[in-house]
Fold:
Amino acid sequence: MPVIGIDLGTSNTCVAVVKNGVPQVILDDKGRSTLPSVMSLNKKGQFFIGYLAKAQMSVQPERTVHSAKRLLGQRFDSEEVQRILPFLSYSIMPSQDQMTCVMLGEQCLSPTEISAAILKKVKTLAENALGEPVHQAVISVPAHFDNKQRQETKHAAELAGLEVTRLINEPTAAALAYGYGTDMTKTIAVYDFGGGTFDISVLEIGEGIYNVLATGGDTFLGGNDFNQAIADKICDRFKKTTRIDLGIHSLAKQRILDAAEFAKMQLSSADQTLIDLPGIVPDIDPKYAIREVLTRAELEKLCTPLVERSFKICRNVFESAGLKKDDIDEVILVGGMTRMPLIRRMVRDWFGIAPNTAINPDEAVGIGAAIQAMALDNDEDVVLLLDVIPLTLSIETAGGVCIPLIPKNTKVPHRVSRVFTTSRDNQESVIISIFQGEGRHVEDNTRLATFELSGIRPARRMEPQIEVSLRIDVSGILSVTAIDLETKQSQSVQVVDMSMRALEALESEEQP
Ligand code: AMP
Structure:
């Protein structure tokens, strides 16, 4: 039975497989290599996924969900969600466990369920193309995806009837697509600019080994920000001449965003394009229209600061890994945004070498996932991935100070144990909180899990010895165990998220 590779992207999803040693993208019945990661609900209560759903975006924006990946595994009150909230054309709200859920008609769906629907659609697509059932997949995730986001991706796959044999980091997958079947030995940078996120990874590749040296990214930087920048400019101009704020007209807002994206893509090959939106606020007056020319030069001026932000991240990643730009033999471009001439030019200027544009930026990640799927399925040593964790994992100690246990860029799988103790006499239990991030204090980091180890024998402060172990598997998923070394009482948790679910998942077990 084939094992497929899936690039579950913010904007588009791509599915691939390796057949007779040859990686190939699975095309739909119209020959298209990607599926829009969009879900809509029509007035009759029918759900649509992909192209049909995307077509609904400017007709029924409030019933069409796009970019659900940005909400995956996110608490409603998180910075990420609060930042994108004003720009969403559909409604979201906190779920019972304070995570984010999407309102589609009367239904409240989690981003995980929406991702599951997209995965189910590509699973069926693959089954139709391959003529046999598919039950297993390798799925790619952004390198900086945290534990919760990884867990939810796996959960979405399970809901879609797919067992995830591994999660693979997107830039690592792209490197695999680039290096597979060659005998090159190189240090490469994978510059991945997608619809919602930016990632940079540096890898050494050679003899089938893909060794990630460093990785970093920004969940707030992607093609959507470019679309928004263009749309904001259009809305500002419109407001100046008409005093009408289009921001409160959801249909107009979505039409402008769509037109902005279309213009941005056109300007990758044309010097100028016309943005033509008749009847933009028909409720007020059908005569109001937007009709303006956008040139590539204007677009580039508007978007240069966004591209510069990507290099700030590159600089940080290079510095923290002790790398120099001269170390890089090749820069691989991944993600739809790297089709933009401005990005290609700025990448060349920053790295001092022309980027490699030979691989298809929309397909490379899916292909890499398929290569990893094949290697795991065949138990073949054709590829060996030595990936890293993107963010430091630490434990909270007195005063809300985070003590790092596993620094970022540590290779996975990895296991570490450290012994802690109590701070009060006769303390019967300790609360263990694990955080992710580079800050020194808890408020600067993301809480991954909190659990209680109870049953500690009465003793003077500093006497009990509590060993906390963190284990990260090859998919970058963390589990934590705490054990009282004297009583052997232990608690372990596979980290799902910081809220009630993590606590419910607690298991008490006696150490042998
Ligand atoms: P991805 O998440 O990798 O599928 O990338 C999707 C992003 O790439 C979206 O923001 C698209 O608008 C953008 N994109 C796709 N094609 C082009 C193009 N030809 N020029 C500029 N941006 C593009």
Notes: Residues 9-12, 194-195, 223, 261, 264-265, 268, 335-337, 339-340, 362 surround adenosine monophosphate (CB under 6 Å).
